[in-house]
Amino acid sequence: MPPALRMLAKVMTAELGKLGIWRMSTGLDPELAIEVEELGYGTIWIGGSPPADLALAERLLDATGGITVATGIVNIWNSDARTVAESYHRIAAKHPDRFVLGIGAGHREMTDTYTKPYQALVDYLDRLDAAGVPASGRVLAALGPKVLELAGARAAGAHPYLTVPAHTRHAREILGDAPLLAPEQKVVLDTDPERARATGRAAAEMYLNLSNYTKNLRRYGFTAEDVAAAGVAEEVGWTGYATGPMQQRWGALGGGVIAGTVWAAWHLVPYLQLHEPAWAFWQCAFTVAARVIIVWLHNNTGHSVFAAVLFHMTMNVTYSASEDGWSYDPAFAAPVMLAAAALVVALWGPKTLARYRFSSR
Q1: What pTM does this model have?
Q2: Is the peptide bond before 103 cis (omega within 30 degrees of 0)?
Q3: I want to staple 167 with a disulfide (CB 3.0 to 4.6 A). Which of 163, 217, 292, 352 is the partner?
Q4: Long-range contacts of residues 161-168, Cβ cutoff 8 Å, at least 24 apart
Q5: CB neighbours of 248 closer than 8 A, spacing ≥ 6?
């Protein structure tokens, strides 16, 4: 951080302790907060873009005696700054030095109005300043260098999510020694490397469709193939193991629809954690239709698992290949994929998805 900005860095007043927990808001309640505090953790980070009323944070603080509660993070596109400021003051008055307001610009794939996020963050901070929210009581979700500098200049520090140790080192160099740096890094405890990687891929897959995360991972040595690799593990199971027996019992279309429904249900919780129910509905429809297409590809490429992996990886890379990203809308994508699946069924038949009805043979 340049010296002029470093001089403006604010020191956080809340005590975070050495260890904290990060959990989606849907998985938090006062009873768990009490248990977490009794176990000796210093902070509870509320994930999943909690709303502007900050009601959950207040309930967790009301139920506990000393643990700090932080938002990780309030989304500036969904939460009005004035309402957030009013909520902050209400909570700070009841629980002084126990609440940290984490804010961030979220993801362009989830927000139709996502434009010029850096300037939007600056404007949002201006409104919080005008409403009397102290810089010492807030942190920014910061991945790139520019927003990290902003976090050091106009907040108490940064709360980057889905990062790696190299990013943490770089972030500390940018922030300097004083501002808080509270990164989220995923760790798998396992003695089997392959099993650990599979566990890690399953946990990270939903984030690999979000361009700000994939762009940041690429800054630190990850490739497009790395961020798409989750499809490999899934297709080894779905296509390599499950597709054949399911087709034998229910036919190609039936097996594909059943597998797709289970596949969608597997992703339903993270869908609902990150999106509105309507988004989740259309994405589940997209997922079922995509599985039918994958079964069709599998049956028409000599039962190739590689074809399924390639299609799955292509879907993942498509979401994240753009340097700047774009708005993904399953309400548009799902009908397109459903129409493609319907065309495949009409032309190749539901029983096998492999007998082209207009073949001259």
Answers
A1: 0.68
A2: no
A3: 163
A4: 161/72, 161/213, 162/186, 162/204, 162/207, 162/213, 162/216, 162/217, 163/216, 164/217, 164/220, 166/220, 166/221, 167/143, 167/216, 167/219, 167/220
A5: none
